[in-house]
Prior knowledge:
Layout: H1 17-21, H2 25-38, E1 41-45, E2 56-60, H3 63-71, E3 76-77, H4 92-95, H5 105-116, H6 119-141, E4 145-147, H7 148-153, H8 155-165, H9 172-183, H10 197-219, H11 227-233, H12 243-274, H13 276-284, H14 286-301, E5 306-311, E6 315-317, E7 320-322, E8 327-331, H15 332-335, H16 371-388, E9 393-394, E10 399-400, E11 409-411, E12 413-415
Parallel strand pairs: 2-8
Antiparallel strand pairs: 1-2, 3-5, 4-12, 5-8, 6-7, 9-12, 10-11
Helix pairs in contact: 5-11, 6-8, 6-16, 8-12, 9-10, 9-12, 10-12, 12-14, 12-16, 13-14, 14-16
Bound molecules: protoporphyrin IX containing FE.
Protoporphyrin IX containing FE (HEM) binds near residues 98, 99, 359 and 367.
Amino acid sequence: MTVLPTITRPEINLSDIQGFWSRPDAEKEAAFALLRAEDPVSYHPFVNMSLVDTEGLYAVTRHEDILHVSKHPELFSSAGGITTIDAPPEFNEFFGSMIAMDDPRHARLRQLVSAGFTPRTMKRLEDAVRRIAAEIVDDVAERGECDFVTDVAAALPLRIICDLMDVPASQHGYVFDQTNVVLGAGDPEYTPEGTDIVTALLTAGGNLAALMDEVARSKEGGTGDDLTTALINAEVDGERLTHAELASFFVLLVVAGNETTRNAISHGMMGLCANPDQRAIWAADFDGIAPTAVDEIVRWASPVTYMRRTTAQPVTLAGAQIGAGEKVQLFYWSANRDEAVFADPYRFDVRRSPNPHVGFGGPGPHFCLGAHLARREITVMFREIFGRLGDLEMTGEPEMLLSAFIHGVKHLPCRFTPSR
Ligand code: HEM
């Protein structure tokens, strides 16, 4: 039985980055538990928030209500944006991807992009995941210590997406830095000094889009097995992706696919270190336990804290009356601890089944397009870790990302017996 710290309703304002999101995870979990029990669709007036066109946000914290919202995109639109801030129109050029669109525009793009995931590109991907995970462990194995986040967890998803799109290896570090700016925008470590957040985001988005444009141009008329070539040629009802759409999709992929998977792997490692019994269970039968362990890692990590919707008309949700045009935020992290759905929700249980977590989103048109790839990456990375860094342990406290949107770990010092 887990005892959560005490927190009271007046101390909880989910729009307050400095005041609320800088608290330890256990206090955030306690806040979610209180909201689920007493105020499941709660209102949070904005404090210290710029680039917003409403007075506050509604937080949905129960699992069943999040499923309801996800299933009703006609009432809860994605087109207004997916984070609390209302991006200025100039953001659309680089960040105007399908995740922030409604059908039929969203469906058209999702079909086109899905058509790019051909058996050839999938084969390339499977091979790449195995090869790159082994290379990453090769690089650290002899050292006996490393920063697990930057040296292990972060390296895999980035290199996979770059390899998949055939971005040259010389540019991988550059892509890594630009995505950090995009998703770590509230954290001083990632915002270049002397720059405001909007300029930093626009510059990073523009840089990523320009790089993709260059890669796409070099692929025209080619027949390679990379995703860029497949996407340039993908056709649905005689339509193709424009260069701008391809560039925005790349920005979406590197942003959606990198930070999320890296944080899942980092939280997963922390969960295993804190629960040696679970680590032993998985180690004893890696392949047998992997399917449930990987989903438990995603539930545990909840790498995407929330996604936002905007009400298309006045609605009533769990008794709360919400006007049209209001921000409604689906707190997946809270739903993944909902005691009405998960037995002993604060227990990290590698055999948990069933595990209807919403780490990849709820059932709806925007359900994560990369869920299959993410599960593969997590499985293969832990297979390498169990096989070659089996006694890895943490040597210090993790350093957490200051963000309401991403449940991120920035640094995690660790050591293990060196090997060749
Ligand atoms: C553990 C890793 C991951 C987590 C936790 C995660 C989580 C999510 C979530 C919560 C959503 C939004 C769902 C919604 O709004 O209903 C989403 C959408 C998306 N994800 Fe992931 N994701 C992960 C990995 C990936 C990877 C590896 C890729 C691609 C390579 C990817 C690509 C996408 C795309 C393209 C969308 C937008 C889909 C759409 O709007 O139709 N994700 N993901």
